[in-house]
């Protein structure tokens, strides 16, 4: 876990912290993940950097070995949690797949804002977060993962992503380390 720097225009991407997901069982207490994601959103806004709030409202088509829920999600399921304090200038992205870049306009919106790096937090570590990180990396963004601001319902998926996948996609660090880098960068400006 070596966090070296944040680019001048770095965006925060918060994945799937929404009403229908935050009450599901997870490896790490969801309250802690939500609090840290909230701290990151406040810090990025304070430094006038883009915040992207992502929710999921469907799933990719195709057969899988695991059954999927049928029918529409319950009312309010995809609503972003209030702790993220959505602001008018936040980018919001509703996805139908695990990753936030597939079949959405997130990449073009980030490029229009001259973003070169993304910090990613949210759930689930081994699906939504990892897929978004992979897609961001493949699109040419520098990737940083706020590993204490994410969780997964499966310990093995969470641990595997952090230990084996994330080091190949970017840098990882704590919420506080990211906030400290933002502050240090602003102090130098």
UniProtKB/TrEMBL annotation:
Top-level taxon of the source organism: Bacteria
SUPFAM superfamilies: Isochorismatase-like hydrolases
One Pfam family of this chain: Isochorismatase
Signal peptide location: none
Protein name: Hydrolase
PANTHER family: ISOCHORISMATASE FAMILY PROTEIN YECD, PEROXYUREIDOACRYLATE/UREIDOACRYLATE AMIDOHYDROLASE-RELATED
Keywords in alphabetical order: Hydrolase
Residue ranges of domain Isochorismatase-like in the record: 10-175
A molecular function GO annotation: hydrolase activity
């Amino acid at each position: 876990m070596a966090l070296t720097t944040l680019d001048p225009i770095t965006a925060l991407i918060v994945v799937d912290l929404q009403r229908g997901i935050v009450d599901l069982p997870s490896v790490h207490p969801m309250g802690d993940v939500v609090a840290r994601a909230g701290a990151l959103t406040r810090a990025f806004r304070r430094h006038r950097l883009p915040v992207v709030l992502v929710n999921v409202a469907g799933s990719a088509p195709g057969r899988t070995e695991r059954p999927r829920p049928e029918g529409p999600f319950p009312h309010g399921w995809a609503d972003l949690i209030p702790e993220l304090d959505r602001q008018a200038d936040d980018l919001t992205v509703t996805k139908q797949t695990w990753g936030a870049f597939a079949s959405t306009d997130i990449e073009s919106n980030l490029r229009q804002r001259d973003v070169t790096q993304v910090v990613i937090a949210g759930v689930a570590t081994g699906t939504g977060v990892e897929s978004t990180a992979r897609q961001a990396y493949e699109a040419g963004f520098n990737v940083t993962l706020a590993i204490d601001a994410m969780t997964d319902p499966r310990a093995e998926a969470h641990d595997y992503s952090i230990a084996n996948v994330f080091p190949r996609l970017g840098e990882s660090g704590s919420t506080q380390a990211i906030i400290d880098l933002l502050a240090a960068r602003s102090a130098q400006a």
